[in-house]
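Sample intake sheet
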Amino acid sequence: MISKPVIAGALAGAGYLAYHCYSPESQLYGRTLTHCADAQHLALTYDDGPNDVHTEHLLDVLARHDVKATFFLIGRFVSARPQIARAIADAGHLLANHTETHPNLLFRSRAKVLRQLSDCSEAIADATGVQTRHFRPPFGARRPAVLQVARELGLEPVMWSVACYDWHRHATTDSVFQHACKGIERNHARGHIVLFHDGGHTNLGQDRSHTVAATERLILRYRGHYRFRRVDGI
């Protein structure tokens, strides 16, 4: 019979390992980019696009303030809306890989991880001519094999240091903006990678108007204190 302390220890160990699969700043399973090296830099990043019409509205906001950002795109949505992917690239933003269909990669075989990343990169290249060099795992979920496959494909894994929780059902412009400010001002010693979403991973057309509005408020608040950068320039 296995003793209770042994069982408790095993559960604690499993919990520890699971935590580091999802913790955005953990380096336990391999190096990932989580912060800007320069404390005066902010990198705005957007997941789950392209998504009409909100990605297009977001591009208008970024252009109005001459800010460049990074878009982690879902391959199947790029194939469905190639014109939006091209508009992102044409505006000078960085296109990056967010898998083909947005699965949780913890529960996919190495071969399926490879297919997810390869298919997404191919979709982006077909639509825009851009060869992606950065990757963000859906839900932030990774294990050593996921990061190894990414690097074999020449993709640098990118996480984040500030989450804005704009994917929540009841998110508002105010709540997204306040989450962003709280995360940024929590640590002034390093610059931050800020996680937003311009789309939703389940389908096209999800409302991200609150993200667009919060982005503009964030730029107006911090443009005198930070320089906004793509993740390949931090």
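Comment: The longest strand covers residues 41-49. The chain has eight helices and nine strands.
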